[in-house]
Every structure is written in C-alpha cells, then in structure tokens.
Amino acid sequence: MGRRGGRATRGGFVPGGHDPASSKCRAGGARDGADGRPDSPCPPAEPNPDARLLSCSADRRGGTRLGAGYQPDIPRHGNGRHVQKPDVAQIEVGVTTKGRTLDGAAETHRERAARAHAILQALAADRVVVEKSTYRLTEDQHPYRTPDNPPPQRAEMPFTAQTSLTLRAASIEAVNPAVNRLAGSGLFEIRKVRFSVEADRRALNEARRAAVLDAREQARIYAEAADLTLVEITEITDGDALPPDGFADMPFSLRFVEIIPPASADFTASVTIRRRITSR
Predict the structure, then answer these.
(1) Which of 15, 55, 113, 275 has its CA 20 to 30 A from that of 193?
(2) Residue range 6-36, pLDDT digits in tens
(3) How many CB atoms lie within 10 A of CB 103?
(4) Domain 88-140+154-196 -> CATH class
C-alpha cells in the first residue's frame, strides 16, 4: 500500500513519485500518476557516454565538426624533384704555412700567397675565378693539463697562417685542368669540388612546381576514393627546397687528379597544401 507523497515498491518506499517501471513521463517533464494526472517531476535524463565521446571526437581536427562555420579540409604533403645536368663547379682550396714565430709564419705565408695569386690570375683565362677568400693566423693550442699528464712538448712550428679560397669554374671542362695546375704547384691543398648548375634558382622552382603537383594529385586520389569533392585551396605551406650536395672529398696532397663529374644534379622541394572538401 502506498503512503502519501510516495509509493511503496519491492525495492522500498519511493518518496514523492511513482515506481519508474510503472509510470510514464510526459513531454513536459512530469510523470503521470495512477489517476492520469501529473504527479511528480521526471528525473533528468542520464547523459549518454557514447554521445559525449562522439562530441569529443567530432571536435578534433580532421573529424566531422558540427560547429557553425566549420569547413572540412584535407591536408597533403607533396615532394618534388628536378634533375638537371651540372654545368658549373666550385673548387675549395687552401694555402697553409707553418712558422716558429707569429711574424715568421706571416712573412713566409705572404711570399707563398703572392706566388699562389699569380697562378690564380692565370686560371682566370679559363673562366676559373676566386669567389671567396679568408685568411687566418693561429697558434697551436696545448691540451688541457692534469696532475697525471706531463707538460706537453711545444711544437717546433706552433704558428699557422692559412688562406682558404673558393674558386668557381664556369664550365665542367675547366675543372680538371685547373685542379691539376693548382695541385702541381706545390702551394695549394685541394679540399673539395662541388658540381651544380648556373641557374640554380630556376631549377629549385621546377622542384617546387613538382611538389605542388604531387600534393594535388594525392588530394585528388583521396577525394575520389572517399567519394568527396575537392573545392578551393585554403592554405599552402612551403617546405624545404634544397640544391644538390655535389661535393667530392679530395685528399689534402695531390699532384695529379682526374675528377669525374656526376651525370645529374638533383634539386628537391616539399610543400603542404590544404583543400576544402564537400560531400558529393
């Protein structure tokens, strides 16, 4: 038997309402009593955990967002490559002089540098010119002393004068004659030779163009497979654009060398493109 203000059930007394199993809630939020009149208010509906999870997942980038003004897009990362035959070269060389004193090393190096300059002027006739030159005068540093280490012996010639130069050869055919002439003089150290192209910016732009085409093709394939329509491009982010690393390491002491240039110089670039998508 029920009591005023409540209803007795097998599970006990339910104050202020009816057994949820035997009562119905109306759209206004009240539960009908036994006589059909509104009795007690309905309890609030329990939240659906699956709905919360769906809402959280939908708000993440790349999902289906239901907020006003949201426009889904598809980002793709494209890579491009442009191959071209090298037509120029850079030659890294150096002139090094050792001395017992600072002034002695500098004076001897000045004489050797004058002879080296004459050789470089002769190479200009073959369109091999000096692009960059740096000069250094240093003293050999002693290693850090510890109680267990005896004092190191001082080098016989602790001072070093060095001129480093970067030469530019306007044609690949001029590289080997120039390198052999420099090495045969006994003055120059041949360090590196790098092959590239004269119009390197144009070649990099061709690699960028290929990267954009690659990103667009990827987006088209994904859209077709997912039955979507590609609309306009919303964002373009430039990636890396790199010239070829055509260095050839050379030994420091050479008398004769035959350098074989690479068959091609590879320029690479990357880009990220976002495109808006809609349902078909």
Answers:
(1) 113
(2) 544 444 444 544 444 444 454 444 455 555 5
(3) 11
(4) alpha beta
